[in-house]
Amino acid sequence: MLILTCPNCGIAADETDLAPGGEAHITRHGPEASDDEFEGYLFHKRNPKGVHFERWRHAFGCGKWFHAARDTATLEVFGTYPAQTLEPPKALQALIRKKRPDWEGFQK
Amino acid sequence: MRRYSAFAIAREAARFHTGWERAWRSPMPKKAYDVIIIGAGGHGLATAYYLGKNHGIRNVAVIEKGWLGGGNTGRNTTIIRSNYLQDESAAIYEKARSLYETLSQELNYNVMFSPRGVMMLAQTEHEIRGYKRTEHANRLQGIETRFISPAEVKKLVPIIELAGPRYPVLGALWQPRGGTGRHDAVAWGYARACSDMGMDIIQQCEVTGIDQKDGKVTGVRTTKGDIACKKLGIVVAGNSGVLADMAGFRLPIESVALQALVSEPIKPCIDVVVMANTVHGYMSQSDKGEMVIGGGADGFNNYTQRGSFHHVEETVRALIETFPIISRLKMLRQWGGIVDMTGDRSPIIGKTPLGNTFINCGWGTGGFKSIPGSGWAMAATMASGQPDALAAGFGLDRFREGRFIDESVAAGVAH
Ligand SMILES: Cc1cc2nc3c(=O)[nH]c(=O)nc-3n(C[C@H](O)[C@H](O)[C@H](O)COP(=O)(O)OP(=O)(O)OC[C@H]3O[C@@H](n4cnc5c(N)ncnc54)[C@H](O)[C@@H]3O)c2cc1C
Ligand SMILES: [Zn+2]
Question: CATH number for the B118-180+255-342 domain, one of 3.30.420.40, 2.10.10.90, 3.40.50.2000, 3.30.9.10?
Answer without folding.
Answer: 3.30.9.10
